[in-house]
């Protein structure tokens, strides 16, 4: 099974705050907005990443409760870290190297999801055995 793309829809009540966050702090571009459903495009070196937000409707959609992590790979995590700091985003987990093979930092979006922003590093120690 091969996937070409990943698109995530979050069920929210604060759609404007969410889309503004991704446009302002992640350089996103709004590609669709019908009032109760909006999509933000994030540029990537491979294919664009699309994140959507939806206000729960009365026709049975469940309200999103939060708790997702979006793992966003970048070429130069240190440069992105500096860019995010300059924009005034609160850092949830400071930038660090990890033996599981990345250098990363975390921030939170307005609905409590974690954005783990990382660049690949060499996998070390016990984590080498986890590769399949």
Automatic annotation (TrEMBL):
Domain VOC: 4-120
Name assigned to this protein: VOC domain-containing protein
InterPro entries for this protein: Glyas_Bleomycin-R_OHBP_Dase (IPR029068), Glyas_Fos-R_dOase_dom (IPR004360), VOC_core (IPR037523)
Pfam families from the UniProt entry: Glyoxalase
